Amino acid sequence: MSPDQRRIEELERKLNERTKEVEQLQANASYLERENLKLKEENQQYKGVIFSSASLITYLKGPEYIIEFANEPIRNVWGKGDQVVGKPLFEVIPEVREQGIEDYLNQAFYKGEPFHAQSLPVEHNVNGELIKSYFDFSYMPQRNDDGEILGIGVIALDVTSQALLHEKIRNSERQFRELVNFMPHKITVVNSEGKGIFCNQNWLDYTGKSFMEFIGQTDFEMFHPDDRKKVSSEAKNCFFKGEILDIEARIEDKNGDYKWHLIKATPIKDGEEQVTSWITSSTEIQKIKEDEKRKEDFLKLVSHELKTPVTSIKGYVQLLLATLSKKANEENNPLPVKTYLHRMENQVERLIRLISEMLDLSRIEQNELELRYEKFNLNKHVEEIVQDLTCSSINLDLKLSHDFNCEVYADKDRIGQVIINFVNNALKYSPDSNKVEISVYDHKDGQVAISVKDFGIGIAKKEQDQIFKKFYRISGNKDDTYAGFGIGLYLSNEIIERHQGKIYVKSEKGKGSKFTFTLPINQN
Amino acid sequence: MAKILIVDDDHTIGLMLKDILEFNGHEVTVSQEPRKTKENLVQNDIELLLLDKLISGVDGTDVCKMLKKDPDVAHIPVIMMSALHNVDEICKEAGATDFLSKPFDMEALTSKIDEIYPEKG
Prior knowledge:
The complex is a heterodimer of chains A (about 525) and B (about 120).
Chain A: H1 3-52, E1 56-61, E2 66-70, H2 72-78, H3 89-92, H4 101-111, E3 115-126, E4 129-143, E5 149-158, H5 160-182, E6 186-191, E7 196-199, H6 201-207, H7 211-214, H8 225-241, E8 245-252, E9 258-269, E10 275-284, H9 286-327, H10 337-365, E11 373-377, H11 378-392, E12 397-402, E13 407-411, H12 412-428, E14 435-442, E15 447-454, H13 461-464, H14 488-498, E16 503-508, E17 512-520
Parallel strand pairs in A: 12-14
Antiparallel strand pairs in A: 1-2, 1-5, 3-4, 4-5, 6-7, 6-10, 8-9, 9-10, 11-13, 14-15, 15-17, 16-17
Helix pairs in contact in A: 9-10, 11-12, 12-14
Chain B: E1 3-7, H1 11-23, E2 27-31, H2 37-43, E3 48-52, E4 54-55, E5 58-59, H3 60-69, E6 78-82, H4 88-93, E7 98-101, H5 106-116
Parallel strand pairs in B: 1-2, 1-3, 3-6, 6-7
Antiparallel strand pairs in B: 4-5
């Protein structure tokens, strides 16, 4: 082989090597291009995620915290427009530097410790105005392969509306807490099982217990032994039905004394009408109770003391009348003694009625008006009352009609009292007429009606709703008023209502009135 | 005619009852001393007692209970009286045969006595 040939072979070999190297380089370049493309795509994806995220995201590079990138939400919060990239953070938002933000960043950058905060208040400048916002955020140190910290990744969330809402709730709760502590009432809140979850200071002061002793407890022992059963059954009933509890009971204080309280409890329901808790308010009424007791005792005493001389007067009047009937005829007597005695007797009866009304009023106020129920024939009872009224009142023209016959289950004396009250009113308010008509008829609703009709002064429409109220008295002509306490119709109303009956009036001024009451018919 | 003892601390009521009952033909003794009731019943050979519920601080029902436990006088019917409301049941529980609410009608008084002593009224 000639030297030239050897040289040619050498060159060919080198060419082949170079060609292979070029092919290898081309393959590498193509690989790198693909990888670069892939990286670019990935970068786009990450950027897409970052820039479309509602979270506030930025990357701060180096110890000067140069803004490498910042997504739109964080730029909006900064309020400095889009031209922030490449600027140091504290040049863009210098106002936050002194608010501790630099310290938190330094902690992450120099110590490599991630920093997290929740609902952190930050005052930042937006359009020249300092605005307070709240953020949840994380500062994450970003390192290179050698572990060197290059910058800080910031992810934050604007939680201003939630934070303000929480603050509002906290303020509202504080206000209510102060309000319930300020109130003179004792306030407790129990869960749906009746176990304590909150009480105000007054409750703790009164019972002498600590808040922890109250929490989670159901304590019927605090009620007076005589009231426990009543409170327990009423409370259970209300808990079961989800209705308001309204009861009077004695509650033990820290000294072991029991004091009367008015206890009211109202259910708190969730969106599905399920009772979740109960708010109870207890108001001390010990003094009122004592005053009521004194008043009641006094009225009993007054009534007893008034009735005693009346008993003697009535007895003697009746004895004199009996003596006169037996021994002498009034016609032989120069004085109309019998007539006078009858008048005295009527006035004594009136006095007795007034005393009874006064006592009844007190009993109604004390809720002590006891009814003695019995089954009786109403028509017969009305007849007896009419007979008595006719005997005791000479000038009374009383007509009775029965269109319906029935028995009722009621308090005989109290029903009589209502009828007598109606008739007495009929006479009192009929200065020019002594005609009174009583009728018993079917009220067509399972009830029997008794009405008393007069032909007196009548009642104006506007007064008709008022007359069943306590102490209301009708004015007559020339503004003169009629005798009485103004409690007769109030008592009648109370009596009939307690019998599940109805009471009403139909009247026309100048023509007379018709008072009616109804009672359930006894079906058994 | 019955022999009746009236025990009432109100002097006038005692007199009034005496006058009414004597007018109706009964023989009447009046006392304002509830503690001497048994003594009065026995001494005067009483057949019926009219007893007030509240007599100078003494509860008539206690007197009635005591009499009803005493074999010497337990047989004597007792009509209790009071101006207090709703005490009729308490009086009857104490052993009273009947109860009269003050103020009462003379007729109510005499008819109650007639019910107990029909032959003597």
